[in-house]
Amino acid sequence: MSKIIPLQESLRRVIPEVFGCEDYRKEEELMERIDRILSVSGLEDVFLEECLKEKESREEQGKQRKASEAQDGASARQQKEKSTGWGASFLRNSRNALRCNILKHCLGLSFRELSKQLAMSPLYQWFCRLENFERIEVPSKSTLQKYSVWLSAASMKKILNKLTDALADKERATEIGIENELDVSTAWVDSTCLKANIHFPTDWVLLKDAAKTLLKSIAVIRKHGLVHRIGSVKDMARKINTICMEITAAGRKKAGGKKERKEKLRKLDRLSKIIELHGKRYRQLLDLEWSKTDLSRREAEVILRRMDNVLEQLPEARRQARERILGERQVNNSEKILSLYERNLHVIVRRKAGAEVEFGSSLFVVENAQGFIIDHELLKEDSPGDGAWLSNRVEELKEITGGLLKAVVGDRGFATQAVSKKLAQENIIDLLCPRNPKTLAEKLQKDEKFAEALNRRAQTEGRIGILKNMFLEGVPRSKGYANRSMQVAWAVLSHNLWVAARMRWKQKEVAVAA
Questions:
Q1: Domain 181-198+343-501 of CATH type 3.40.225.10
Q2: What is 203-335's CATH number?
Q3: What are the CA-CA distances from residue 469 to residues 109, 464, 465 (Å)?
Q4: Tens of pLDDT along 139-168?
Q5: Contact call for residues 96 and 129 (beta carbons, < 8 A)
Q6: What is the reported pTM?
């Protein structure tokens, strides 16, 4: 705590008084309450401490890289960029990162739109603690994007647990101004699919994406001065688009459509092979002769990584398309390539209206009676099943709730003998919906507490909808499991602050304290 530089509250921007708009008054009250929770609960200080720890860890790693890079001839300027980060303004930027990320997820805005709103709104400028001495400095779109990965997902977990501890403690909740502390005695659990931001994984679409990525990379390399024998890049792109439209049209034909679709896929397959060969030649040319261009080695490596990612997967994508379309044979879900640009995605069979099958990652959510999300987990691997998933997280749930967890409620997907045994061992009441309809009917008649808990369970579906559609913008835009996991953690933190700020507050005490 001694490392944290206290912010001078007298220098904060004053919120102008606005009359005549009830919606603005509610938004202002929400921002003021979230600000108070961050300050009084100690959440902001813990966040800054975690930022300092990670910064020190990165600097130590940077020193080790610096020695090896110096041997490789890296410039002093490049070494300095890697080791200094944000420099002397690190703490202030860390505060801004915390508040800007919370605001972004509460409003459900893109980075560009958030930067625009910060420039226009004095209320949001006040909440994010933007300086306003001679001029107001608003974070740009790229700065906000850096803020989104400011802290690791592991550290974000500590921040979430800190907020839960503060609001579940009666004295701390009273100090903040909340009338009733969080009730963590009963937990409602559910799982869902967090959809990935990818094209629908049709086999020929993978070939199209691979070909177009390689063609765009070749066009960039040629633009920067490295030229090799090749036909017109634009003509090849047009051919790819034409063939894909023909495949789509053939799929709609009742007579002869299947045969024509196969013929067009063979044509696309041959063209993708030609583009693959050109891609390999240009990739080797850039790797060996990048110094003849106006690109730095780092910029060249960005292009090389993009091409390598596609070139490594293209043969398997081509085999997959031949197996499924030409051979009409099934490919196991575990072996399928769903996207060339996103790894760790899975085919999740939901069997729901409008979502028979979804593509993404499994998300586990636990909430309390007040709608506060106590725990969550985004899986990197395929889901082991709801029952096994819950069984694995029971002990952690008890730890998060400080041993106050007394009952668990969930749908029939979680009800297994192993889960019931685990809950009994931990002295937790099993209020999971039985899979047997007859057992369910009997339990509803005899156990009033079970009936009430199960009736409340429907609200968990709505809670998941709020988290995904409002705080995660429907489909997260972050790429890669690590970034998606961080975006989910920020969304859960913002959601919980939003829930806490909308709980019943002791208005008079808060007004006096403020």
A1: no
A2: 1.20.1440
A3: 12, 8, 6
A4: 999 999 999 999 998 899 999 999 999 999
A5: yes
A6: 0.87
